[in-house]
Amino acid sequence: MEMVSANAVHYHNQKTEAMLRIDEREHPVSMQLFGSDPDILAEAVEMLEDRPYDVIDFNMGCPVNKVVRNGEGSALMKEPEKAGRIVRAMVRAAKKPVTVKIRKGFDENHVNAVETAKILEDAGAAAITVHGRTREQFYSGKADWDIIRLVKEAVSIPVIGNGDVDSPEAAEAMLEQTGCDGIMVSRGARGDPWIFRRICTYLDTGKLTERPPAEEVRKMILRHARMMREYKGEYTAVREMRSHIAWYSAGFPHAALIRREASSIENLRDLEALIEKWRCLPDTRDFT
User: Fold this and answer.
1) In the CATH scheme, what architecture does the domain 214-280 have?
2) Are 198 and 164 in contact (CB under 8 A)?
3) Which of 54, 73, 182, 219 has the maximum number of C-beta atoms within 10 A of its C-beta?
4) What b/e string do you get for 151-176 counting C-beta neighbours within 10 Å, with b at 16 or more?
């Protein structure tokens, strides 16, 4: 789920309430919290206990400045002992598994994922996700899969690898190189919701399937937009779809044109007209 502030849960923020909703078809689903106060995080866990989440996840990986400035997200990579106290408080308050997402470290001079993972395991974390980049890297450069392997070798709880999994082949390579128990796909899913099926098919059968053709992508954009409208209303849905259309169309002919025109759509009718225009453009060959 989207990352939710424990403080916002504590203060009953109305905008946050919309982020807490899930669809019954989403299970298993993990509620992702962030914060820096052990008591408030434990209270948030208790307040959410009766909601239909399967797992409570604590995010220590977010690199965004406004989060880090508050000592939250990946700022906690600089304070592993405090992170341990937070997770211990959350585990005591929870009846569900509490998992944690961490990074390689805060920067290259402070690579402490292994040390942090051991502390979190001792605090009761049920599983740990490791993003193979430091906070200072944000999402740049190449993810360090060796640090995922080192964490896996250091703890006995499940370790989930994260970073640069954007294809079925990358998923297989991460499993082989790190020995991790699971894979988290993040930016690789932008514009490619088929990636999960493609990864599972490849890992199960060895069969490599390509991204779908342009027409299937266009149909998915429309389906996505209509579902967003149902969930968030047309105004918000269309504006959020501007970025999604850019991701969906990447790699296809006329992607720059589609991306440029998507930036100014105002309603679902505009979006549908843009998709029809794309359909009528010449040379709409399949993704390669």
Assistant:
1) Orthogonal Bundle (1.10)
2) no
3) 73
4) bbeebebebbbbbbbbbbebbbebbe
Give the CA angle between residues 65, 68, 72 to the nearest 5°: 145
Q: What is the CATH number of domain 3-164?
A: 3.20.20.70
Domain spans in the chain, listed from the N-terminal domain onward: 3-164, 214-280
Residues found in the chain: 288
Contact (Cβ atoms closer than 8 angstroms) between residue 61 and residue 30: no
Reported as a single tens digit per residue, the pLDDT across 190-224 is 999 999 999 999 999 999 998 899 999 999 999 99
Q: What is the CA radius of gyration of the chain?
A: 20
105: which residues sit within 8 A by CB, 6+ positions away? 77, 111, 112, 113, 134, 135
Nearest to 260 by CA among 246, 250, 277, 275: 246
Contact present, 1 and 33 (Cβ < 8 Å): no
DSSP state, 267? S
Q: Residue 62 catalytic?
A: yes
Please give the distance of CA 61 from its chain centroid, rounded to a whole number. 10
Per annotation, catalytic residue among 62, 180, 200, 280: 62
- Non-local CB neighbours of 173 within 8 Å, separated by 6+ positions: none
